[in-house]
């Protein structure tokens, strides 16, 4: 049997396996049915289900009857959901379960708490549980770091150097998750959870190339879901926006509808700054960007703001620019997370930025706080000495 025929048979088997494994992961709406049971809930209590799909938020409720509750509906593909019970006690933490809703019939069983409920009949949630077990110790470490923030003094919580060390510690621990997630996806090419496991690796230059290879080995049925296509996009962008590579060209309109291109700033250091009027951390970081812009604008540096404001939010965008005194060019297509430049650069959270040198290459990214000023001082001093 020649290699061509062998490869053809393998391809047919792969496609068949994908079709058998993911009969429900298609664009058509499919039914989901959740059956819940509890020994601890009283008849008449209300259980709520919330999730987002097709850019819409959905909330449903079910009244407990003799320890039973249920939910049903239609979704195109698996989505993250939250099952919760409201508390009458002021300040009490909401009892909730984060899980995946997939278009099958499955059950959720609990005794005293939704948080510790067990799920049966859902392959996706079973796989999610496996990954959570593998990353539990690291997640616990991250939880401890997060909890420690409330113990800091008000002065510490406002101190830039202190915060920079805090975020650095959190980032270093978070990075420990990446090889575990990569290994999971490599071992489970037919698991929907492999998509979300690979997504964070797009932002890490150490892992992005291998993550792209592992993603391509996933079952075709997975890669063709909306979640799969989104992950494919950010992984591809991560590979194309490494430090040292040419910055990706783009053109977008400013607040007056005038097109502005990245190439307009050739010959300068330009910070592509992704932000939005609705983004609290962005607005908090803006004074730092303003200070560095004022300090270095006469030394060959400028900023190009890219806003991820929502459709119809032109007025909010313009007001935020004025309020925060952002005296540099600003562009946006007012398309929220579907902003074309954000997708081009694989931006999944904001604030985010990329520093481009006069030759048009990416020389740094993710510069916040003192890191921005330090990097500009380093680069512009070198530039000045070589002139």
Key terms for this structure?
387 residues, four-stranded mixed β-sheet, Glutaredoxin, disordered N terminus, 41% helix, alpha+beta, 3 domains, Immunoglobulin-like, 14 helices, five-stranded mixed β-sheet
Q: How many helical stretches?
A: 14
CATH-wise, what's the superfamily of the largest domain? Glutaredoxin
CATH topology of the largest domain: Glutaredoxin
Assembly state of the chains shown? single chain
What is the percent of helical residues?
40-55%
Shape by Cα distribution = globular
CA gyration radius, whole angstroms: 24 Å
Mean pLDDT: 90
Q: CATH class of the largest domain, anyone?
A: Alpha Beta
Give the distance, in angstroms, between the N- and C-terminal Cα atoms: 66 Å
Percent strand:
15-25%
Commentary on this structure:
The chain has 387 residues and is α+β, with helices and mostly antiparallel strands. The protein has three domains: 30-121, Immunoglobulin-like, CATH 2.60.40; 146-240, no CATH class; 251-386, Glutaredoxin, CATH 3.40.30.10. Helix content is 41%, strand content 22%. It has 14 helices and 15 strands. It has a five-stranded mixed beta sheet, with helices on one face. The protein starts with a helix and ends with a helix. 29% of the residues are buried. Mean pLDDT is 90; it is low at 1-26.
């Amino acid at each position: 049997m020649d290699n061509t025929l062998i490869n053809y048979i393998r391809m047919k088997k792969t496609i068949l396996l994908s079709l058998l494994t993911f009969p429900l992961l298609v664009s058509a709406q499919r039914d989901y049915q959740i059956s819940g049971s509890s020994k601890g809930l009283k008849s008449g209590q209300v259980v709520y289900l919330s999730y987002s799909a097709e850019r819409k938020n959905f909330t449903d409720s079910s009244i407990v009857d003799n320890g039973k509750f249920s939910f049903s509906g239609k979704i195109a593909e698996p989505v993250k959901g939250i099952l919760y019970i409201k508390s009458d006690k002021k300040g009490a933490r909401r009892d909730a379960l984060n899980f995946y809703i997939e278009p099958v019939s499955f059950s959720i069983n609990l005794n005293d708490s939704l948080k510790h409920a067990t799920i049966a009949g859902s392959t996706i949630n079973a796989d999610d549980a496996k990954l959570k077990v593998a990353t539990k110790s690291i997640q616990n470490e991250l939880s401890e770091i997060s909890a420690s923030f409330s113990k800091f003094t008000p002065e510490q919580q406002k101190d830039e150097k202190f915060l920079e060390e805090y975020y650095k510690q959190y980032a270093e621990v978070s990075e420990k998750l990446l090889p575990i997630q990569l290994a999971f996806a490599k071992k489970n090419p037919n698991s929907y959870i492999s998509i979300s496991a690979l997504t964070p690796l797009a932002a890490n230059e150490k892992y992005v190339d291998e993550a792209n290879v592992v993603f391509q080995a996933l079952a075709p049925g997975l890669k063709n879901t909306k979640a799969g296509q989104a992950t494919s996009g950010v992984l591809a962008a991560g590979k194309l926006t490494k430090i040292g590579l040419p910055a990706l060209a783009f053109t977008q309109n400013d607040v007056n509808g005038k097109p502005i291109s990245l190439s307009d700033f050739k010959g300068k250091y330009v910070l592509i700054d992704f932000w939005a009027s609705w983004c609290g951390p962005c607005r908090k970081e803006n004074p730092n960007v303003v200070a560095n812009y004022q300090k270095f604008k006469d030394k060959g540096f400028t900023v190009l703001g890219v806003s991820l404001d929502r459709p119809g939010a032109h007025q909010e965008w313009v007001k935020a620019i004025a309020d925060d005194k952002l005296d540099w060019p600003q562009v946006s297509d007012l398309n929220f997370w579907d902003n074309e430049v954000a997708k081009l650069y694989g931006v999944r959270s904001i604030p985010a930025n990329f520093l481009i040198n006069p030759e048009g290459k990416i020389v740094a990214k993710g510069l916040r706080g003192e890191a921005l000023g330090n990097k500009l001082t380093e680069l512009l001093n070198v530039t000045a000495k070589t002139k």
